[in-house]
Design brief:
Length: 176
């Protein structure tokens, strides 16, 4: 067992491993949050934490989070535009982090270890998204409804992944 609490998964970018959760109407949520713990082994290139995306804008709600050059980047799409949070250089190799991303009426907010590290006023959600969840790889070039043409594989470990159907406040994030 790997992970911060012993029940996680380990990814090796060279093996192109990833975890896929099938699309489900329960994940079509206009407001919500995703939280996970991660430790990256290598910061070379772009390393994707999670992706619920495909090529183009489709019905909106595409979502991808990745690490590049020690920065956390989270991109959410409407039906015709990208909305992004990009942090400063805050992610080191071989260190466990707890990341939470919330979206909804209070905009987009990213937290690392309970601290707000970035925000965007965009209030859209993932309600129109018909894609599967992919952890450990990007599906931004995938076809609709499938996880193919994956790229930017994660190199490290993930644990304690949770998805909520409501936007979490800073007080909620602080106790995760």
């Amino acid at each position: 067992a790997v992970g911060a609490s012993g029940g996680g998964v380990e990814f090796d970018a060279g093996d192109k491993g990833y975890l896929e959760v099938a699309a489900n109407n329960a994940f079509k949520i206009p407001q919500g949050a995703i939280t996970l713990r991660f430790e990256q082994d290598s910061d070379s290139g772009k390393r994707t934490l999670f992706s619920r995306d495909s090529s183009g804008y489709d019905n909106g709600g595409h979502l991808t989070a990745y690490i590049e050059n020690e920065r956390l980047v989270i991109r959410m799409q409407s039906t015709n535009a990208d909305y992004t949070i990009t942090t400063g250089k805050i992610i080191d190799d071989d260190t466990w982090y707890q990341m939470t991303f919330t979206w909804g009426p209070d905009g987009m907010k990213a937290y690392i270890d309970g601290e707000l590290v970035g925000s965007n006023a965009y209030t859209g959600g993932i309600g129109g998204n018909n894609e599967p969840w992919v952890f450990g790889a990007s599906q931004v070039n995938s076809g609709d409804g499938v996880a193919n043409n994956l790229s930017d594989y994660f190199d490290g470990k993930m644990d304690d992944i949770a998805i909520y159907n409501q936007q979490l406040t800073a007080d909620h994030v602080d106790i995760l």
